[in-house]
Amino acid sequence: MIEVVKLGDICTMQSGGTPRRNKSEYYQGGSIPWAKIGDIENANDNYLTETKELITELGLKSINNRLFPKGTLLFAMYGSVGKTAIAGRELSTNQAILGIQPKSNFLDTKYLQYWLNRQLKDLQNQSRGVALKNLSATIMKNQEIPLPPLSTQKKITTILDRADALRQNDKKILEKYDQLAKSLFLEMFGDPVRNEKGWEHVLFGNVVKDIIGGKSIGGEERSLKEGELAVLKISSVTKGEFDNTQYKVVSNPLSNIKLIMPRQGDLLFSRANTRELVGATCIVDKDYDQFFLPDKLWRLELDNKLANSHYIKFLLSDKKFRDTLTKTATGTSGSMLNISKVKLRSLHIPLPPIELQMRFQRAMKKIEEQKNLTKNSLQKSEELFQSLLQRAFRGELL
């Protein structure tokens, strides 16, 4: 029978810290990698070696020299609870990340990471908080993990590594298609901020026939049943593609309220979000009869004689142009920003000929066809990985 032990008995755990932001000497000229949740989410092949921010020796000292060695398992305790990465080098982190290090050679770090991936939903259910879900180090220390011999752990990780490589390869192919689409946009239309191709500048309001917002209605974080309705979350658009898993189920009757259902080809726009995500857009892939838009998501109805949804979507998604768009938003740094309809309509945009936009749209549809084939492949490789993951920790893999 496989021994089951508490993580706190075989691992040391410590969270990081955040040097005071008003102390420039803690950040300016820094050389020490300092990881945040976003760095974990963007880790390359589950290993974190580069971070967006660096801190100085003084900054590190101000958080009690909380430096994690290479090989430490980094675990997200706040927000994206359960996300993990392995430190690919010595680094520091903020307080939202828990550094986990096995005390001895009884536990393989990759085995631990796979086990935490398997426990993701359970860990998220144990998290607390309303606005921001979080897990404490105490909860993590009390988690019980099956502990077969180290040689068995390594065999399990080898099998899971191979299955994981299949899905990671599909993800990389999808990324290449996204890079191809962005390159095609720049090749055909140029930099939308510099506008070196000399396209006519018009007000955004000239190409938008209508801006339609949804309804602010609360809901529950649970699976959607047949016949029920759900309000979309802002996160349904923030990845640049419509995410039909991001919603809240509404229990109260909505018969007397006019709802805006997402339809195939709709261009959705996030009018409120953080500075990095406000103004995110996506194009809906098909009709959805069980979802409706919240007040923070708009449907942009375009004058199709002047502009099409693919051109506008990529224009608003361009990083440099997004910076211009974000400057029109109201709100304080660190809080949710908001873009008004008036300011969106008054935005100046370059407007190439509609014939060129249509060529771009036709090319994009071909890319999307290939992406859909890869997505189907990814779904199968994901199902294989998840099946092996479950079997591994039920003792059925070896």
Characterise the protein shown here.
There is one protein chain. This protein is an alpha+beta fold and 398 residues long. It is 36% helix and 21% strand. The chain has a 5-stranded mixed sheet with strand order 2-10-7-8-4. A hairpin with a 7-residue loop joins strand 7 and strand 8. Helix 7 (150-189) packs antiparallel against helix 12. The chain is globular, with a radius of gyration of 24 Å. 30% of the residues are buried. The model has no long low-confidence stretch (mean pLDDT 92).
In short:
Helix content is 36%, strand content 21%.
Alpha plus pi helix count: 12
Binned strand content = 15-25%
Helix content: 25-40%
Broad shape: globular
Average predicted confidence as pLDDT: 92
Structural classification = alpha+beta
The biggest beta sheet reads:
5 strands, mixed
> What is the first-to-last residue Cα distance?
14 Å
**What's the β-strand tally?**
22
Major sheet strand order:
2-10-7-8-4
Rg, rounded, reads 24 Å
Q: What low-confidence regions span 5 or more consecutive residues with pLDDT below 50?
A: none
Topology at a glance:
Blueprint: E1 3-6, H1 7-10, E2 11-15, E3 32-35, H2 37-41, E4 47-48, E5 53-55, H3 57-62, E6 67-68, E7 73-76, E8 84-87, E9 91-93, E10 97-102, H4 109-118, H5 120-126, H6 137-141, E11 144-147, H7 150-189, E12 200-203, H8 204-207, E13 208-213, E14 229-232, E15 247-250, E16 267-270, E17 272-273, E18 281-283, E19 291-292, E20 297-302, H9 309-317, H10 319-326, E21 337-338, H11 341-345, E22 348-351, H12 354-392
Parallel strand pairs: 3-9, 4-8, 14-19
Antiparallel strand pairs: 1-11, 2-10, 3-5, 6-9, 7-8, 7-10, 12-22, 13-20, 14-15, 16-18, 16-20, 17-21
